Amino acid sequence: MKRFMPVVLLMVSLAGIGSAQTSMTPAMQNAPSRKSSLTEYAGPWISVFHGHTWFSIRLVKQGTQLTGTIQIPAGFTFDNSGDLKSVSDDRSTYALDNVTLETDYLLLRATNPRTRQTDSYIMQLTSANTAEIKMDSIPMSPEMPQPKPWKLNRVGPMAIAPVH
After folding, report:
1. Is the pLDDT assigned to residue 24 strictly greater than 50?
2. Domains of the chain by range and CATH?
3. pLDDT at position 36, please?
């Protein structure tokens, strides 16, 4: 009996460990992804091309919403693989009209005050201080390659001058 008890305890322990190690059930695999919070997106973000900031976003949390600005060059081109090829030196800064938090991304909309054209961007976190953004409403001809998302890095609060 003394030898039997340790064997039983060992078997019960192993069974408990084995059941804890099982894979996710189908219901768990189909569960919706975790929704990011607005706070995770708040702050200044930049994208660098050839060592220089060419694109920036400043997102400010105000209550239950994000507001902010986006600064983008007046012109930019892509190569045949969809990578950024060139950017113009002149930049325009627009206020964000609408920022919507979706399940796993942020939808940003900004209207160019000159042309009254609204541009949409999809921003998705890749880590606490990195993200990817792509234009959602870019008019492209069918033969042009689809632009790849641009890499964003969160920077310090003074890295982007506030717009007044």
Report:
1. no
2. 38-154 (2.40.128)
3. 66
